[in-house]
Known about the structure:
Strand content: 15-25%
Bound molecules: guanosine-5'-triphosphate, magnesium ion, zinc ion
Number of helices: 7
CATH superfamily of the largest domain: P-loop containing nucleotide triphosphate hydrolases
Number of domains: 3
Mean pLDDT: 83
Shape: globular
CATH topology of the largest domain: Rossmann fold
Distance between the termini: 30 Å
Number of strands: 15
Radius of gyration: 22 Å
CATH architecture of the largest domain: 3-Layer(aba) Sandwich
Largest sheet: 6 strands, mixed
Order of helices and strands: EEEHEEEEEHEHEHEHEEHEEH
CATH class of the largest domain: Alpha Beta
Structural class: alpha/beta
Strand order of the largest sheet: 10-9-8-11-13-12
Amino acid sequence: MSQYQGTVISALANFYWVFLEELDGYFLCTRRSLLKKIGKSILVGDLVIVEELDYKSHSAVISQVFPRSSILKRPPMANASQILLFFALADPPLDPWQLSRFLIKTESTHVPVSLCLNKTDLVSQEQAWQWQQRLQGWGYQPLLVSLSRQEGIEQLASYLLNEITILSGPSGVGKSSLINALVLDSSQKVAHVSGKLHRGRHTTRHVELFKLPNGGMLADSPGFNQADLECSPGDLAQFFPEVKPRLGQCQFSNCLHREEPNCAIRGNWERYEHYLQFLSEVLTEGIPESRESTFKVKMGYQGIKHFEPKLEFKKYRQNSRKQRQQDLQHLYRQDEDSQLDF
Length: 342
Ligand SMILES: Nc1nc2c(ncn2[C@@H]2O[C@H](COP(=O)(O)OP(=O)(O)OP(=O)(O)O)[C@@H](O)[C@H]2O)c(=O)[nH]1
Ligand SMILES: [Mg+2]
Ligand SMILES: [Zn+2]
């Protein structure tokens, strides 16, 4: 039986679009029941083996998933080699608290992060320059671009070359516009289905991975405006690059950098105020209502709550080939009818 290696470029429910390098084509796949049985999830970015290719309907079955080099929870993706945090200087306005929160959240994934600020055309040069200076003080060298004026795109493209990058950031900052500017191959877009709001504005609903023309891949992701912090209080300070060199110099090894004597971190740096706010959040964070049913709470060090997933057992049912074909046909029909997002 012939097997091919591929990359999962989008996922919805139990269907996956997989790009097969060797065939230079996209196949809509289900996963082998055994993978489901052993609880093996499949994420966008996963390297997989596919079998049972049906060239007529362009469908196949995923039979194996290779070990991952990285996993991101939100947006969900495997094997990203870097994160490009994308914000706009205006429209939506650049909010330092929101940006800081995203930066902390992103740093906590331990995947390398870079920052790009879009829409320089909407602010004065002076304002753009001030933001650049300010963010250097936060330990970042942001790249400033304007997609509508096509400024800074070459530099951005060279940064993305041969990497697997995920774009992350709030809604409306221009992430999908960047994909459109860089991904020339319109045939790729056939395998990608994007949603459309009633207002007529395109908004991304799912993570989708695109091949870049000169090598590398770039994932678009849905914007989200509130990044929740999920790290332990003792780890928080290491996610602020501007104080990283001073870590480990406090008198107490478990210093939380508030009132402790001989603290090397407490002081007058711009984001110290963010640090204190985020610290109080991670110290007191309650469990969101919606997660209560699937998580159990455990008390740990310094009375800090930890959430552990409750184990869940599901009945396992083998999908017949006939059922699979029906499901695929149903999906295709939906797609043709309404360009519905998966
Ligand atoms: N003025 C200006 N507008 C831009 C620029 N880049 C993108 N836009 C506009 O910003 C709006 C939002 O762009 P999108 O690319 O859809 O934003 P997104 O980040 O993908 O948004 P979500 O999918 O909701 O997360 C669109 O109307 C774009 O035309 C830019 O450089 N300057
Ligand atoms: Mg988008
Ligand atoms: Zn300290």
